[in-house]
Design brief:
The chain is an all-alpha fold. The chain has helices spanning 17-85, 89-124, 132-138, 140-157, 162-197, 208-245, 251-256, 263-305, 307-313, 320-324, 329-344, 346-368, 371-398, 400-408, 414-443, 448-468, 477-502, 509-533, 543-565, 571-575, 580-589.
Length: 593
């Protein structure tokens, strides 16, 4: 089993909350960079329309993927953390043994159901007729992700975030390499086949435009195969790591621990924790499914009711093919929206790591009944989350257009993507807080509250989408506005419920308003410097990137300065970092903390 870690004074120390969060954040940052390296060139291979189909498939499976990649690991992590913190090591190991076959069975059932539903969904949703191929290519990933979720949750419950982070990076690398290669090969082969034989992978299209849409559909399916392959490699890594290196726990801890409960009892407890967490994870990703489903249908309705008003909004911003085939416009606009979503999701993805890392830490304090320790850990989680997500979200909003140009070039779709991104940057402030707050409610035994609040939030988003996207002059931007309303309600309600459920008083000034004030300064200064420097530097040959990096760095420096002046960073935060004692001591001498 290797050298063990021990908790509570026996063996190797667990990673602290912040240490574990930084490990996951570093892994997530690499994953998101690789994701951008995947999505940006993929846009040039399959276009905005193909990206729209790719994301229709992704968001159709989004709730199920969230269930197996977020809901299941959290359930396992919470139960393992609770048992290990109380010295019930055999129960912790039993959780993994019981969860394996249980989650595999759920994954197999989910794979079958989603495969049967995919054709019905494609016929029902406007603009999704060509999405069937990428949807079917993604189906096996459900089963594979179920297997990986057991290992990730087990390691996270023991306070070890390295296996999760490394497996996610490995998955992203495989997706990048195989997905891009497959998409490029399929598009090239389909194009050559059509020019030679007049068919696309054996299908005879009615026109050249239909041939293009078919080609992009199969190209998107090739890209999705990279996602499935990445899930397989990730599962193999985790299984082999556990097989040959174990979990790092000292064998005598199992010998000294009480006998494990029966599998039936563990299974019952696991179900009791899994169901509400799973429903919460499902509800979170229903936002993406709402956008994928109703966004295209609603814009299709607008296109039928008031085509002149809708097309006037995008005059000069639509490629010729979509002006001649307006029925494809909803998928094109949805593709633009999802390209903005790719950047927006960077912010909540980073703070998702804080929620995962916070769960075992807060669960341990709750299980011990130590209110002072519980309050300290909760305030640290919320404050650190705000410190990271507030400047990132505001920065995305104020620099939306240059970020879009840098990533996606000077194409006709840039203004559309940038407007969506500016709204989603605001939404990311609240969306990023959702994960950690939800995790802490689950940690204090109120996993039902995130579920209830999420369903109300999704109803708000659905209503806002339906009303706002139905206005021709707003159309696609209504989805961003709905996302802001949805997550704003969610954060306010979850924070209020957390204070009541935990029975502790959490400060709002120190953990919310100081970071927000400094983040506004950061955004304003970055935008000011960008506008000042842009006319002075040549924007070709990397000039745009240079101006953007300089402006962002300047805003970041002012942000850190503001935090130090307002005492927004605490000594305990720095001490939680690896080798953070030296930094804390130096800043303390200068009177900054």
């Amino acid at each position: 089993m290797g050298k063990g870690r021990k908790t509570g004074g026996q063996g190797k120390r667990r990673q602290s909350f912040l240490h574990g969060a930084l490990v996951l954040t570093a892994g997530m940052a690499v994953v998101k960079v690789l994701g951008a390296l995947f999505k940006v060139p993929l846009t040039y291979v399959i276009g905005e329309y193909g990206i729209g189909l790719f994301n229709v498939a992704y968001h159709f499976y989004g709730p199920v993927f969230s269930l197996v990649t977020a809901g299941f690991p959290i359930a396992v992590s919470r139960l393992v953390s609770e048992n290990s913190s109380l010295g019930r090591w055999n129960d912790a190991r039993q959780v993994k043994k019981v969860a394996g076959p249980m989650f595999f069975a759920i994954g197999a059932g989910g794979m079958v159901v989603m495969t049967l539903l995919a054709p019905l969904y494609c016929r029902w949703v406007t603009g999704a007729a060509y999405a069937l191929a990428p949807m079917l290519a993604l189906t096996p990933a459900i089963l594979l992700a179920c297997g990986a979720s057991v290992y990730r949750g087990y390691y996270e419950g023991l306070g070890n975030m390295f296996p999760t982070a490394f497996s996610q990076v490995l998955e992203a690398v495989v997706k990048l390499v195989l997905g891009l290669a497959a998409a490029g090969a399929v598009v090239s082969a389909a194009g050559e086949e059509y020019s030679t034989y007049g068919t696309v992978l054996g299908i005879v299209p009615e026109s050249s435009d239909q041939a293009m849409f078919l080609t992009l559909s199969f190209g998107a399916a090739g890209a999705v195969l990279g996602v499935t392959a990445g899930s397989l490699v990730s599962l193999l890594y985790l299984a082999l790591r556990f097989r040959f290196h174990g979990d790092g726990t000292v064998p005598r801890l199992y010998q000294q621990s009480p006998p494990a409960k029966s599998p039936k009892e563990i299974r019952k407890r696991l179900w009791a924790i899994t169901l509400p967490i799973a429903l919460g994870s499902l509800a979170t990703n229903v936002a993406g499914l709402i956008d994928a489903t109703f966004l295209q249908s609603r814009i299709g309705d607008v296109l039928r009711r008031a085509p002149e008003r809708l097309l006037a909004v995008y005059q000069g911003q639509l490629p010729q093919a979509y002006e001649e085939n307006p029925q494809a416009l909803p998928t094109y606009l949805y593709g633009c929206y999802t390209l903005a979503m790719t950047v927006y999701l960077l912010v909540p993805a980073i703070t998702q790591a804080f929620g995962i890392s916070a769960l075992p830490s807060v669960t341990a304090a709750w299980a011990k009944g130590n209110k002072k320790e519980l309050r300290g850990r909760m305030e640290t989680v919320v404050r650190i989350t705000a410190l990271f997500c507030f400047p990132a979200g505001i920065g995305v909003t104020v620099l939306a257009e240059p970020i879009t140009r840098l990533l996606y070039g000077e194409g006709q779709s840039v203004p559309v993507i940038a407007q969506c991104l500016a709204l989603l940057g605001i939404a990311s402030l609240a969306a990023a807080m959702n994960g950690p707050l939800s995790s802490m409610l689950q940690a204090v035994g109120r996993a039902d509250l995130p579920v209830k609040l999420l369903f109300v939030a999704m109803a708000i988003k659905l209503g806002a989408n339906w009303v706002l996207c139905g206005v021709p002059e707003i159309n696609i931007l209504g989805a961003g506005m709905g996302t802001i309303l949805c997550y704003l309600f969610l954060v306010v309600s979850q924070f209020w419920c957390l204070r009541r459920a935990a029975g502790v008083s959490l400060s709002t000034v120190g953990i919310f308003f100081r970071p927000l004030a400094c983040a506004l300064l950061c955004g304003a200064s970055a935008r000011f410097l960008y506008d000042l420097l842009r006319p002075l530097l040549p924007l070709g040959s990397g000039g745009e990137a240079i101006v953007l990096v300089i402006s962002t760095a300047f805003g970041g420096i002012l942000y850190l300065t503001g935090l130090l002046l307002l005492k927004g960073i605490r000594k305990s935060d720095l001490q939680s970092l690896p080798n953070g004692q030296k930094i804390a001591k130096m800043l303390e001498k200068q009177g900054w903390i």
